[in-house]
Amino acid sequence: MYRKEITTYIFSILLIAAAAAVQLAEARDALPFTGKTLVFFLYALIFLLWAKNMENRVLRADVARRFKLIALLLIGYLATRTVKYEILIASSTAVRWIRYIYYFFILTTVHLVFFTSLYVGKSEREPIDRRWYLFWIPTASLILLILTNDLHGLVFVPYAHASGFKQYGPAYLLVNGYILLLAALTLIITSKRSLAQKRLRSIAAPVGVLALCFIYTMFYIADAPSFHYVKIAFQSAEFNSLTVILFIESLVFTRLIASNRGYDTFLSLSSLNMGMMDLKGRMVVKPNKGPEVSADAVMRAESRAIAVDENTLLESSPIHGGSCFWFVDLTDFNRLKAQLLSVNEEMLNENELLMANNKLREEMAKVEEQKEIRAAINEHLKPQFAQLKTIMAALPEEEGAYEDALKDACLLNVYIKRFSNLFLLGRNKKGLPLSEVRLAFDESLDYLRLKGVITSDTWTVEGVVDAALGLSLYAAFQIILEAHLHSLSALFIHFKEDDGDLLLFIYVETEEKISLEREILEVLPPKGVAFTEEFEEMLCIRRFSISKAVMIDA
Questions:
Q1: Residue 238 to residue 255: CA distance in whole angstroms
Q2: Does the predicted model carry a pTM greater than 0.85?
Q3: CATH fold of 262-329
Q4: Which fold has domain 3-253?
Q5: What average pLDDT does this structure show over 456-462?
């Protein structure tokens, strides 16, 4: 945990304690002023600090925006409560309307918390199903029903002296039932994947928060004497608001929602000679090796590289919250340069000198070509490297979960290895042997069987295929595998020739029906191959129809 996060947590706890003390003091008439306004400002500061903290921790921008909106809704909820008791308590009409407005904040906040749970277990690039947005229809309808209660009296009865359950109309149960439904769906979605993988530790925190909320509600309704001071210190509005914050915090802290944490561990375990400094010039992450550098040097290196010593260059780039810097090793370059100087000194013959110079240039060109190849491969495999980093930075302690995580890492690693191999084979050629493409598929299936998945392949096509097409077919296969990785029970591949075309079928046995048409079409070449997908009860079928025109004479 980073120092800034710890400071924020401690400061927030102190603010909560101060707000509780104000509530208790006001209940004893020990304050020379009304305390609810001060409590509101204390909690508003807590929510703003939390939203700012989440902005730096959460990877997905759309999720961070939802967290900001939740913070604003909670502030609005407490502000409305404060206005009611501090200003408008004498007006029955105002009190009635504030009661209606309460439910706007409550329903909208619960809905957004439910939407937050939909991102559990999803990667940074993986969207949620758009059909979930249909839930906005009943939410908005119930808000409208409450706000128009004066016209129909279905939620709250219009009688001034009604009390107990007599003050509630028939639609009141519908509103609260809907809130309970969203809470239940939130709990189910949050815990579903972890329960399936038997990773109970990861859901202990969010389930514990919901359990705490349930216990508070039961004690609040029962109005137990032992609960009296807790009820005063943490009134329902404040407690419910804190529950929302704690629930979301538990999802992020346990990595059920992807968060921006663990980069220091990743960099320390990687071969990257990279470090990070904050805006105040303090070292946040130290490089694995290399000389000591000052904050001033890192800042100057943002505009141009700085020579630290004869074999090392310092380069830097600004990032959010500071700077990232790295060292470039010039040892090989300087060795080649020294060889050139030596050749210049020792060779008297101009033609011999020219030949040596040309040879050196060729070697340097090879070095540049290798750099370009590495950059191209890294760009193609950036999503897999990111997933592998996330897995290795957050390996679970439980033996079963630890083993499952390593199996997932192996599947990503074999794709990285085989894709790189195919890329290098097809780099300077027009085509790829289908035998090499099949080896890539087969090795991925071998590791998939380690996860208990039934696999088979029938491959009757031989020859040489266009290199770009061969790479795109393997990339499309990886997209299908990653999308169904944690739900598939069997995967079959059939590659055959039919009426002059090549047909590649990928059958996935799974309960999930996920359309991958957009993602797959993005990696396929614009011409030479057509893609279709269809879904049966327990089967997803992807068909690649490949024109024989892409075949190349060996």
A1: 26
A2: no
A3: Profilin-like (3.40.1840)
A4: Rhopdopsin 7-helix transmembrane proteins (1.20.1070)
A5: 91
